[in-house]
Amino acid sequence: MSEVRRSTSSFYRPGTRSSWIKRPKREWKPLEDRNCTDLPWFLLFTLFLVGMCGICGFTIATGGAARLVFGYDSYGNTCGQRNEPIEGVRLSGLDHTDRKFVFFLDPCNIDIIQRKIKSMALCVSQCPTEELATYYDLKKFAMINGSELCSYELPGHKYPSLPERFEKCPKLPVPQSKALPVFNRCTPVDISCYAKFAEAVVTFVSDNSMLNRLIAGVAASKEIIVGLCLLALVLSMILMVIIRYISAVLVWILTGLVVLGSLGGTSALWWLYIDYRMTMNETMTKDLRKTEEPNGGIKTTKDHSQRLLIYAVSATVFTGILLLLMLFMRKRVALTIALFHVAGKVFIHLPLLALQPFCTFLALSLFWVYWIMVLLFLGTSGNPEKSEETGLVEFRLRGGLQYMTWYHAVGLIWISEFILACQQMTVAGAVVTYYFTRDKNKLPVTPILSSVLRLVRYHLGTVAKGSFIITLVKIPRLILMYIHNQLKGKENACARCMLKACICCLWCLEKCLNYLNQNAYAATAINSTSFCTSARDAFMILVENALRVATINTVGDFILFLGKILIVACTAITGVLALNYQRDYTEWVLPLIIVCLFAFLVAHCFLSIFEIVVDVLFLCFAIDTKYNNGTHGREFYMDKALMEFVENSRRSMAVEEQGRSKRSRPKEEVELTEVKAMAPGTSSA
């Protein structure tokens, strides 16, 4: 592979024999040199992971994990094992070896705000297998099964006569319960007592019958739901391959719709304004005669007219700017079409790219499950405290230990962004290998696996640094969003506006940094440079091609959005046809919503990979055209479709240059040339 030529720049150094010294710029050497990048950040991220594992170990060592899995009662005793007494808490330190299940006296008493059951919990040896309607039934169940469902100090054979039974025994009737498979909680078989909670979560559910019908519709259509989800998956994979053939058609359809829509909207606003003015002139005299306060009527009418005029003028300015932009960017649209064409070829040569969303989703799912489990462990860790409000024992972290929850929350964001950044680096490495390999038959057997190995061996520090920068921006935005939700309805209009403005600015900054990070990863994959160096180099390339970047991001993103809508629409239509046998719409509307959401999620994941491929191809193309010109020793690396775009651009520039030079020549020289051309004997034989 030929080396990209070295360019030089000059700088002034006083006191030397030659004051101007040539300073070489860093070369772009695709796939040549490999070394470890951002090693300190890799070590920092490793230490952070050790801290995350330390939190998990702490929860296990202090019994938080055991209390979550096996459950604990309201006196701080863990079910299924011997317990140590807790100072100041009566009925603690009991032997619950034979009592392995947690039973709630009032399982339907749910605190929707805190999302927990506000009921006394006891450890029992068996969950009630049938409904118990009276205290005599409780006594009979305790005598036969040896499972006492009232507080420990109450003897089972005296349940019906004890005065404390109303406070320390379960609320009647006791519903039939079944133990959860892993967490050993007695859960009512009939979920009707959770209807209030379900209605709070799903606001459109108004009664239990509708909830039951919706759940029944999902259960009855589970095979169709799975089939439609697989259909959305197949459609997404097919679209990534064929989008290169339909991208040109979509671009020109989009252009026509935008032009017609902007012109039609502007014309409609001007027509409304003229019509309103004519109507206002006709009725002005009548309104002045009938209205006791004519000044108010005239002022209101003028306000409406001025608003329409402002809307029409604004639409006209917007349409003019839009048409000018499309006029200047029409040639760059061809680059977007060419990049889409090459991206389709990339997926044909690198079919394992289609598996990247699965791998990323699997990694994120495993991490999120681990994170949630450790978070639940933290909720049952710490020192036991007796609540003054309920009198129940709760475990809480105090002192410096409570900061472990914040550390754990930061880990959720940083590690999630790290996994997504690994996907971007993997895709960028594979695409860079494809682009800068002249003979596609000499590609590695598995470029994706080669890219993963390079990432693990050299560039984990770069990925850790880039994901940490996104984390620094995302955390303040999430905090502001939390504050905004907590103060909803309490803050004044100015504070609400400032909060929304800050959230919006941080969101925009996060999107810009995400785009820059993605290109920095591509530059690292090309040159094996550190994150900051790669980000600077990629930023300079993007600034030099700002109009091309704008065209690709606007036109390309809209094409991909249309692709997502196409997949969702096809899946929804197929779902309507498949679920049509269920005449009651309430039985298939929820399955159809689930399928459409899944289809959009799948389409977004797959087409996001396609978008990353297009962006990396553009960066490679910009570097290729900047440092190569197609001559001997500086041959292009690009595909034939991109080569045709470059040749067409050169021909257009040559024609424009000839026309410009002809217009700039003096008039006398042009006339003399024409006379010589018409004179006899001047034509060549």
From TrEMBL:
GO MF assignments: transmembrane transporter activity
Residue stretches of biased makeup (Basic and acidic residues): 654-674
Localization terms from the record: Cell membrane; Membrane
Residues of the signal peptide: none
Pfam family, one: Choline_transpo
GO annotations of cellular component type: plasma membrane
InterPro entries for the chain: Choline_transptr-like
Topological category with respect to the lipid bilayer: Multi-pass membrane protein
The keyword Cytoplasm belongs to this UniProt entry's keyword annotation: no
Chief place of localization: membrane
Segments passing through the bilayer: 39-61, 224-243, 249-274, 308-328, 334-354, 361-379, 406-436, 558-582, 588-621
Record region (Disordered): 654-685
Key word Transmembrane helix present: yes
Keyword terms, alphabetized: Membrane, Transmembrane, Transmembrane helix
UniProt similarity note: Belongs to the CTL (choline transporter-like) family.
The protein's role, per its UniProt record: Choline transporter.
Name the UniProt record assigns to this protein: Choline transporter-like protein
